[in-house]
Amino acid sequence: MNEIADHLDDGLQILFIGFNPSLRSGEVGHHYANPRNNFWRILHQSGLTPRLYDASEDGELLKLGYGFTNIVARPTRGVEDIAREEYVAGRKLLRAKLEKYRPKVACFVGKGVYTEFTRRSKADWGFQDTVEPVVDGVREFVAPSSSGLVRMPMHEIVGIYRELSQFTEENEA
């Protein structure tokens, strides 16, 4: 199955970083394409997007200043199918992407994504202002996973993402 292309550019407000694409995303070639994934609804309900986007429009979010990448590019059924070596290589690649593109915010979609990348043992939701960022000048934000398997109530998830929306509004002015 093909890897999904990153959506990267200079001057991004937010780079959304996932573990890896789902099998459905791999089939259709778009980020967060599994119909049980709430990513697109979360972005809209939190105010990050002016309307509800479809996964097939993921490239259009570059116009809003949002990009997409993953620690591991290979689609799998679940994170348990990712090999340790893939994480090691993925951490290096992700760091290089952050250093090259320097988004204002690296948004890790899930605590596990953040801890896997940073090798830190824990994280709180939101901006990680109490620790040094891995890449100087790139603020780190930890958001709940948008997977339909997450047990956190949707309004709580949306509330955490709303912090990002407020940040982008404040930084546009």
Question: If you had to describe this structure to a student in words, what would you say it looks like?
Answer:
- This protein is α/β, with parallel strands linked by helices and 173 residues long.
- It has one domain: 3-Layer(aba) Sandwich (Uracil-DNA Glycosylase, subunit E), CATH 3.40.470.
- The chain has 5 helices and 5 strands.
- The chain has helices spanning 23-28, 39-45, 84-101, 111-118, 154-172, and strands at residues 14-18, 66-70, 105-109, 126-127, 139-143.
- It has a 5-stranded mixed beta sheet with strand order 2-1-3-5-4, sandwiched between helices.
- The longest helix has 19 residues, at 154-172.
- The radius of gyration is 15 Å and the shape is globular.
- The termini are far apart.
Helix content: 25-40%
Q: Which outline best applies?
A: globular
CATH class category label: Alpha Beta
Q: Describe the main β-sheet briefly.
A: 5 strands, mixed
Q: Strand order within the widest sheet?
A: 2-1-3-5-4
What proportion strand?
Answer: 5-15%
Rounded to an integer in angstroms, the radius of gyration calculated over CA atoms is 15 Å
Structural class: alpha/beta
CATH architecture: 3-Layer(aba) Sandwich
Q: Kindly state the mean pLDDT as a whole number?
A: 91
Calculate the terminal CA-CA distance, rounded to whole Å.
Answer: 42 Å
The low-pLDDT segments are: none
**Integer count of domains:** 1
Helix count equals: 5
The CATH superfamily bears the name Uracil-DNA glycosylase-like domain
Q: What are the secondary-structure elements, in order, as H or E?
A: EHHEHEHEEH
Q: Would you count the extended β strands for me?
A: 5
CATH topology: Uracil-DNA Glycosylase, subunit E
